[in-house]
Amino acid sequence: MARRSKLARVSALGLLGVLTLSGCDLNNSFWRFGWPEGITDEAVRMRDLWIGSSIAALVVGAGVWALIAYAAIRYRKKGNELPKQTAYNLPLEIIYTAVPCVIIAVLFFFTVVTQNRVQQRSAEPDETVVVTAFKWNWEFTYSDTAPDSPDGTPVSTVGTSDAVPILVLPVDRTIRFEVQSADVIHSFWVPEFLFKLDVIPGNENGRDNVFEVTVREQGAYVGRCAELCGTYHANMQFEVRSVSGEDYDAYIAAREAGQTTAQALESIGQPGSSTTTEPLTMTRVGESVAAGD
Hints:
By secondary structure, the protein is of the alpha+beta class. It contains six helices and twelve strands. It folds into two domains: about 15-75 and about 85-120; about 125-270, Cupredoxins -  blue copper proteins (Immunoglobulin-like). The protein has helices at about 1-20, 25-30, 40-75, 90-120, 245-255, 260-265, and strands at about 125-135, 135-140, 155-160, 165-170, 175-180, 185-190, 195-200, 210-215, 220-225, 235-245, 285, 285-290. A hairpin with a 2-residue loop joins strand 11 (about 285) and strand 12. One of its GO terms (molecular function) is copper ion binding.
């Protein structure tokens, strides 16, 4: 009895240590099994899949350890007599073949369901942004806009060697990204979206490379190219600035009126330059190299 009491105290202390080491974010990161929280509806669906898969793995692991412990205790050596040898056990073989197949089928089912929901496209998204990747920069075009200019080209933002391009998005609206590349394979990645899409030239460029998100949190988030695309791949950074729907509409109106990205952002009370990242220094034989060279 004393031994059991000691074991219980040690187990309780171990559990307390795990909870303490998990940090103060007990209600979030710990129970998400390390999965990032994300800021989109699609990220929440992927987070739920991860949590469910982790719980299933823990259940399977506990079952396996329980069977190992049962076999080790139930059939431990009790003497020098050789135990009865069994060559085949058809029911047991059927069980340990069928159970993994059922587990894989269930995980596959929920994975496909989540993937279909994440990649689902609405008939009429609230906003459409054309993302053009090129060595080594990004251009974001708001295709639904119509500025007061002679050519009437949509509002767009492109980065320079001195400024990271800022992609302004509204929260609580469905946003479609039509992603295209002007040269090689790139990859559009915003870590807080928990999603990335390779930008493959050709293949109905900008039509097949499409995904949608609904951002739920305001803030500034860094974006990157996640595909090695050449010498200055590391400089392909951008920033996502998610704002309220009212501020977004005001930003677009200011851009349509001729203001720059920085001026339009400052007009809605946002910093005019990126806050999550900054341009990397690019030099070649002592000379500055502009993005896109």
